[in-house]
Automatic annotation (TrEMBL):
The keyword Iron-sulfur does not apply. It comes from the Eukaryota. The lineage of its organism: Eukaryota, Viridiplantae, Streptophyta, Embryophyta, Tracheophyta. This is Uncharacterized protein. Keywords: Glycoprotein, Glycosyltransferase, Membrane, Transferase. It is found in: Membrane. It comes from Anisodus acutangulus.
Length: 187
């Protein structure tokens, strides 16, 4: 699917949709301390023996860190006219992989955004155990049939990338993908 096709499809959808995979999470999480937040040099995280208990005032949700969020939802998270985003910012401060829960928990707990979620992150990913595998030519047909505009992960210079460029994006070697100019998309 070309960039133009993706923009065209999204132009028919409501602007307040949020694309993210969400699952309710019910286990206590380990606490970590990241010295990189306080020092100039990067170092590993420290694991505390304690775990963060589950809160009583909201349900915790987890999911993929690959999300597409609406402008209105992100403005809510940034400007925080409700206390929930600030509360969750503090709650997730000492979590490893907090991006896999912060936005998911806000969107699923706030009445204004609960019904704006599409439980899909628009990514094609093949998993092996807990990790995504590198996609290759043998996965090409499945990727195309999935109909989603994004995929991950790929090995550097894998031939499947050239096939995507040639067959889907209609891109010549070493050139940009053809498409309409920004001014044409806005008309």
């Amino acid at each position: 699917m070309t960039q133009h096709d993706t923009l065209h499809i999204f132009s028919y959808l409501p602007r307040d949709l949020n694309f993210l995979v969400t699952l309710e999470f019910s286990r206590a999480r380990p606490i970590i301390i990241d010295p990189g937040l306080y020092h100039l040099k990067k170092s590993g995280v420290f694991w505390a023996k304690e775990k963060i208990s589950m809160p009583a005032s909201f349900k915790v949700f987890m999911g993929s860190e690959w999300v597409m969020l609406s402008r209105s939802f992100l403005e809510f998270c940034i400007w925080s006219w409700d206390n929930l985003p600030r509360t969750l910012l503090m709650y997730y401060t000492n979590f490893l992989y907090s991006l896999e829960g912060y936005f998911h928990t806000i969107v699923c707990n706030h009445k204004d955004y609960q019904n704006t979620t599409m439980n899909h992150d628009l990514h094609y990913i093949k998993w092996e155990n807990k990790y995504p595998i590198n996609l290759a030519l043998k996965h090409f047909e499945d990727m195309v049939q999935s109909g989603v505009p994004f995929a991950r992960t790929f090995a550097t210079d894998d031939p499947v990338l050239d096939k995507i460029d040639k067959d889907i994006l209609r891109r010549s070697s070493g050139r940009f993908s053809p498409g309409l100019g920004v001014w044409e998309l806005l008309v």
